[in-house]
Each structure stands twice: as structure tokens, then as C-alpha cells.
Design brief:
Blueprint (H helix, E strand, L loop, with lengths): L1 H36 L4 H22 L6 H27 L2 H8 L2 H12 L2 E3 L1 H21 L7 H23 L6 H22 L9 H25 L5 H6 L3 H14 L5 H19 L9 E3 L2
Antiparallel strand pairs: 1-2
Helix pairs in contact: 1-3, 1-9, 1-11, 2-3, 2-8, 2-9, 3-7, 3-8, 4-6, 4-7, 4-11, 5-7, 6-12, 8-9
Length: 305
């Protein structure tokens, strides 16, 4: 009975983790759309967004006597640097290229997490999963090809998105590996502080306008700070205490579909049938990887003993 109850509890915990990761991904899908609609530069957007959420986090922790200690800062430092680099590159990318391109490139993260699992965690991957990964890459290639003629597309923006993908993968890996040493609340606050500091410094270095935003921009910045920022990051860090990091990263497949749809509805970004086909192919392949992790199915990744 005890073993059965324990197994049931683990399944329930993983279910809650999947829901939490999905909600985070949906909120992150909106962040690129908000950033593109704001009249400020990409670095300025990141700075304001993270200062707003970070101040709230640290104020809450101060009121509840839960301020991070030196050990928590050391544990969160690698993830903090990775997130800071990611957000700076990503929000600069969406200012230059299409929201669809930036978010779909970011959705390749599960493939990189798979590679990290093989190299660093001794995990193994079936040939069928490698095939699905290649199909997903083909879908992204089709998406990028389909947008090259659109007025919103930019090669430099796509390259920034690739850099953001690498940094985001590192952030997710460090988020999982640091859990035994720092709480999700502390980790989210510390990584947000690092992002705010880096974005502020770079905004001044590159001469971006840091003047007071207008009312419309404040509204969008608030939605980013407390929706796609505070809620999404805290929820994902909480979810990663219940599910494998590979599965958490796979749930971010919600991001490109949500972002592309919202960019089409609210920003009027053009989306061709070729792009839609590329998105569909990529998401279908990556979803196949995720489904193999469900209970009762053959596992996608197994730890070598």
C-alpha cells in the first residue's frame, strides 16, 4: 500500500508540474508580443520589466523575513547570469525579427536539453527520438524560410534568437541543478535581479532611451513584469521541483503557437501558410517527444545505471 500511495503521489505531483509548466509557457508566449508593442528599446523593456518584479519579490521576502543568504546567491549565480543573457538577447531579437521566428527558435530548447542529458547526466535517447528531433529542426528551417520575405524579418534578429536559445537552455539546466540549495522564490528573485542589472547597464552603454514610459507602455510593462515575468518564472521554477527538466523544457512548446497567434491577432504580423506548416511540423515532432514521457508509455530518456 505504501508503495502504491507513493507512486500515486509522484504521478499527481508530475501532473501538477506539467500544468504549472504549461501555464508558464503560455504566459511567456505573450511576452514577445508585449515587448514588440512597447515603444521602448529591447534593453529598456527588459530593465523596466525586471526591476518591477524584482522590487516586489524582495519587498515580499523582507516583510516575511525570507531574504536570501550568501549561500542562496552563490547557488543561483549561474542561472542568474544565463537568464540575464537570455532576456537581453531575446527581447532585442523580437524588436528586429518576427515574434514567430524568435519564439519558435526558442522552442528548440528541448533538443538541447536532450543533448545535455546525454553528455552530462548519462542519459540515453532512442533512434526514433533522434528522428523526431531532426523533423523538428526541419520544421523550424521551413518557418524561417517562409518569413524571409516578410517586412518584419531580420537575419540579425534571428541570430540573436539563437543566442537566446543557448542561454535559455543553460538557465533551465541550472534551475534544476540548484534546487537543493535555493528555494524557487529565492531563485526567481535573484535571477530577476541579475537580469535587471545587466539590462540597465547595457541600455546605458548602447544609448537606449531610459526615459519615463507613457501610460500605455506602463500597462504593457506591468503585464510583462507580473504575468510573463513574475508568475511565469516562479511557476516554472516550482514545476521543476516536480518534473524532470527535460519535460519542463518540452512544455515550452506552447510558446510559439501562443506567440504567433497573439502576434497575428494584436500586432497584425503576417503569417504565411509556409510558416504555419513549419510551425505545425516542428510542434508535432516535439510533441511526439513529450508524449513518450507520459505514464504507461516507453520513456523518452532513461538514466544509465
Amino acid at each position: 500500500m505504501t508503495g502504491s500511495n507513493s507512486e500515486s503521489g509522484q504521478t499527481s505531483g508530475q501532473g501538477f508540474g506539467i500544468v504549472g509548466a504549461s501555464l508558464s509557457a503560455f504566459a511567456w508566449g505573450a511576452s514577445g508580443v508585449f515587448a514588440k508593442a512597447i515603444s521602448l528599446g529591447g534593453l529598456t523593456v527588459v530593465a523596466y520589466r525586471f526591476w518591477m518584479s524584482t522590487i516586489v519579490f524582495f519587498a515580499f521576502m523582507a516583510l516575511t523575513n525570507r531574504l536570501p543568504n550568501r549561500q542562496a546567491y552563490r547557488a543561483a549565480l549561474p542561472g542568474a547570469v544565463a537568464l540575464a543573457v537570455d532576456v537581453v538577447l531575446f527581447f532585442s531579437a523580437v524588436k528586429l525579427t518576427t515574434v514567430a521566428n524568435a519564439t519558435v527558435v526558442a522552442s528548440l530548447q528541448p533538443l538541447l536539453m536532450m543533448a545535455l542529458g546525454i553528455r552530462l547526466l548519462g542519459e540515453t535517447v532512442r533512434r526514433s527520438q533522434v528522428g523526431l528531433a531532426l523533423v523538428a529542426l526541419a520544421g523550424v528551417a521551413i518557418l524561417v524560410y517562409g518569413s524571409t520575405g516578410s517586412p518584419e524579418w531580420s537575419l540579425s534578429g534571428d541570430l540573436l534568437a539563437v543566442g537566446a536559445l543557448l542561454a535559455w537552455t543553460a538557465y533551465m539546466f541550472f534551475s534544476k541543478s540548484s534546487q537543493s540549495r535555493v528555494s524557487p522564490l529565492e531563485y526567481t528573485a535573484i535571477t530577476g535581479l541579475a537580469s535587471a542589472l545587466l539590462a540597465t547597464v547595457l541600455a546605458f552603454v548602447f544609448g537606449q532611451d531610459m526615459s519615463w514610459p507613457d501610460n500605455r507602455d506602463w500597462l504593457l510593462l506591468g503585464a510583462m513584469a507580473f504575468g510573463s515575468g513574475m508568475f511565469a518564472h516562479l511557476m516554472m521554477n516550482w514545476a521543476l521541483t516536480r518534473i524532470p527538466v527535460w519535460l519542463g523544457s518540452t512544455m515550452t512548446l506552447v510558446i510559439p503557437a501562443a506567440a504567433t497567434t497573439m502576434a497575428w491577432l494584436w500586432l497584425g504580423e503576417s503569417v504565411s501558410m509556409v510558416q504555419l506548416g513549419g510551425i505545425g511540423l516542428s510542434l508535432a515532432a516535439l510533441a511526439g517527444l513529450m508524449l513518450s514521457r507520459l505514464p504507461g508509455r516507453e520513456r523518452t530518456l532513461t538514466i544509465s545505471q
